[in-house]
Design brief:
The complex is a heterodimer of chains A (307) and B (362). Chain A has 307 residues and is an all-alpha fold. Chain A has a single domain, classed as Orthogonal Bundle (ABC transporter involved in vitamin B12 uptake, BtuC). Chain A has 13 helices and two strands; from the N terminus they run ααααβαβαααααααα. A two-stranded antiparallel ribbon of chain A has the order 1-2. The model of chain A has no long low-confidence stretch (mean pLDDT 90). With 362 residues, chain B is α/β, with parallel strands linked by helices. Chain B folds into two domains: 133 residues, Response regulator (Rossmann fold, 3-Layer(aba) Sandwich); 178 residues, Response regulator (Rossmann fold). In chain B, 40% of the residues lie in helices and 19% in strands.
Chain lengths: 307, 362
């Protein structure tokens, strides 16, 4: 029982940076913008959050700084691709490389500095429920924020009018333009939102999860978040499943190793990637779902003048 | 026009090369010593320790040497370019401080027979390439003794990177040290298949703690494991540098590397023109490894025991792999009365008795 609880608690913590980054990217992609710079935005968010927390002592100032830094990094991408019409794939890859370099440069003086760990926020009464209590209601406060973000995005996307407009911009930018919506403005907002969420994901890593800064500390999580969005067929609930599945298998394979399971550790290391892809492919195996959910104009630039 | 420019460039290059050659030829000039680091120096870790060594050497040989380091050089093609750049810029001695620089170092050394190269942790030597490494496992053995005395659950956790001999030497020596004072204690190992991924290092550490380990150590590069121990209020043993500032209560000690004396010695040999390509594998006796000051919580009798064992290691009277050494299956690998030979140690590929789980196959 204790065992299961510690696996599940670790699973949720491990999945949280992916939840933030992938949900943000989902919103960006739904507007028709493909931003491959998630890894870079996460790293910039992580170092900004770390620096701000180290300076002020307040992790929440850090999260705010990470959010703003992620959005600022996304703004570079938005100017390049939406205003200057640069190729989105190339600009996104460049943004990732830029983020790795910039964060390493800024972070040089923060190398291996430790922050004080923040205690998890235990919600009274609810956390006393057996099994579910400690798993769901004794987490870092940012974990609860990620759930709120999920609920908010799911509602916004499918139950609200602005969400409908956002999807319309991603599906048929010309029509949206024709009926008077500013495609470029909406794409700007969606891209900035994606950057801010990636920044929070980075902040979670550097301020709450492993309260220290080391170069390249996201270690590929931004790329995993990108893949999650595709394999989850742009559905918020599936993104959540994918993120926790990835975190869960990562943690479970460590437990298997610690118990002395006779499975090569290299195979176990591969397992989270394999399991996540297989499960998401199975739940999204219907080709129609993919066709219906993939934003039609994903990655295609939009020129209002020639529309 | 175009040809003219090429000619000019070539001329400039020749002039620079001639100047560089002139600089090395004159004996009056201080020796230029270059260091190639695989990661940023930071303020703890593998590269940090090498840089401490560089600074110590520069101080000891003040006036006779100038040093320069290049950090964050990826292993592979980039390394070759950087090493060649130093060699062609009049550096007389170049230290390449990571295993993956082995082939680039050998390759560049062939083209610069007058430049002396020293490569850390590799196994390929050449006429102008010496190799040096430290017996990290000796410090692990002492750390194991501290862990064996301090554990209450009799389970130690070990977050490890890749199953190569250097890492296995550490795991086995730690376990042997621990069981020399506490035969009931066992080591649990988790491989993360990465030298560096703070998130995974932490997940692995948390897992080991959940599985009952109350002393955890690591053979990975970030302080994440020590941090996790501090948070969960268990003990930790740091690696590379003194990690106590990342876990002031948790860190019992750290196994640290000291390169300064070796750098001074080798550089002095080059200055005296007495340098010959050698293979150095030094431990406590040679001042290449040590353990960081023990935590206040370690009782005096344990501290005394560790100090006594350290003195024995220093005097060469104690070998961590002193027989009988049994592997997990109980098979005697080193008979009583013998110590494991260096050639066996260098290719160590099994867990000793007391390590749980099975070793990942190659």
């Amino acid at each position: 029982m204790d065992y299961l609880v510690s696996i599940l608690v670790a699973t949720i913590a491990a999945g949280t940076p992916l939840v933030f980054a992938a949900l943000g990217e989902l919103v960006t992609e739904k507007s028709g913008v493909l931003n491959l710079g998630v890894e870079g935005m996460m790293l910039v968010g992580a170092i900004a959050a770390f620096a701000a927390t180290a300076a002020t002592g307040s992790p929440w100032t850090g999260v705010l700084a990470g959010m703003l830094a992620g959005a600022a990094t996304a703004l570079i991408f938005a100017v390049l691709t939406l205003t200057l019409m640069a190729n989105q794939v190339a600009a996104g890859l460049a943004l990732s490389l830029f983020g790795v370099g910039l964060s390493a440069f800024v972070g040089k003086s923060y190398e291996s500095v430790s922050l004080d760990p923040s205690a998890p926020l235990t919600i009274p009464i609810l956390s006393d429920i057996p099994l579910l209590g400690p798993v769901l209601f004794s987490q870092q406060p940012l974990v609860y924020v990620s759930w709120a973000a999920f609920a908010g995005i799911a509602w916004f996307m499918y139950r609200s009018r602005p969400g409908l407009v956002l999807r319309a911009v991603g599906e048929a930018p010309k029509s949206a333009h024709a009926i008077g919506y500013s495609v470029i403005t909406i794409r700007y907002l969606a891209t900035l939102f994606g950057g801010a969420m990636a920044g929070i994901g980075g902040a979670f890593l550097s301020v709450f999860y492993t309260p220290l800064w080391v170069e390249n500390m996201t270690a590929g999580r931004g790329w995993i978040a990108l893949a999650l969005v595709v394999f989850a067929t742009w559905r918020p609930a599936r993104v959540m499943i994918g993120a926790y599945l990835f975190g869960g298998v990562t943690v479970a394979q460590f437990f298997a190793q610690g118990e002395g399971a006779a499975i090569p550790s290299q195979f176990l290391s591969m397992l989270p990637y394999l399991a996540t892809i297989v499960v998401l492919v199975i739940i999204s195996r219907n080709l129609n779902t993919i066709r219906l959910n993939a934003p039609v104009s994903l990655g295609k630039p939009f020129h209002p003048e020639v529309a | 026009m175009q040809r003219n420019r090429i000619r000019k460039t070539l001329f400039a290059l020749f002039a620079a090369a001639a100047l560089a050659a002139g600089a090395t030829a004159s004996a009056q000039e201080p020796l230029k010593v270059g260091f190639i680091y695989v990661s940023p120096i930071g303020d703890a870790g593998w590269t940090y320790q090498h840089d401490q060594g560089r600074q110590q050497m520069e101080k000891a040989l003040a006036g006779k040497v100038t040093t320069k380091y290049i950090e964050s050089v990826p292993e592979g093609a980039d390394a070759e370019r950087v090493i060649r750049e130093l060699a062609s810029n009049g550096y007389g001695l170049i230290f390449t401080t990571s295993f993956g620089y082995m082939n680039p170092t050998i390759k560049v050394a062939k083209q610069f027979p007058k430049v002396v190269f020293e490569h850390a942790t590799g196994y390929k030597q050449a006429k102008n390439v010496g190799i040096y490494n430290a017996r990290f496992y000796e410090a692990r053995y002492l750390a194991g003794i501290v862990a064996g005395k301090m554990t209450k659950t009799n389970v130690a956790g070990y977050v490890a990177a890749f199953p190569i001999p250097e890492v296995l030497q550490g795991i086995d020596a730690f376990t042997l040290g621990m069981r020399s004072v506490n035969p009931k204690a066992e080591t649990k190992v988790i491989w993360i298949n990465s030298w560096f991924d703070p998130g995974r290092e932490r997940e692995a550490a948390n897992t080991l703690i959940a599985q009952g380990a109350d002393v955890i150590t690591h053979h990975t590069d970030s302080p994440a494991v020590v941090q996790a121990a501090e948070e969960k209020k268990v003990y930790a043993v740091g690696y590379h540098s003194d990690m106590s500032k990342h876990g002031p209560n948790a860190t019992l000690t750290s196994a640290v590397h000291l390169w300064g004396d070796t750098y001074t010695k080798l550089t002095q040999q080059v200055l005296d023109k007495k340098w010959k390509s050698t293979s150095i594998w030094g431990g406590f006796k040679d001042g290449m490894v040590d353990i960081a000051p023990l935590n206040k919580s370690v009782p005096k009798d344990v501290a005394d025991l560790v100090a006594a064992k350290k003195a024995e290691l220093k005097a060469g009277k104690l070998h961590p792999f002193q027989g009988p050494v049994k592997d997990q299956a109980g098979k005697v690998r080193v008979p009583a009365g013998q110590a494991m030979a260096d050639d066996k140690l260098a290719v160590l590929d099994y867990y000793v008795e007391g390590v749980q789980g099975s070793l990942p196959k190659k």
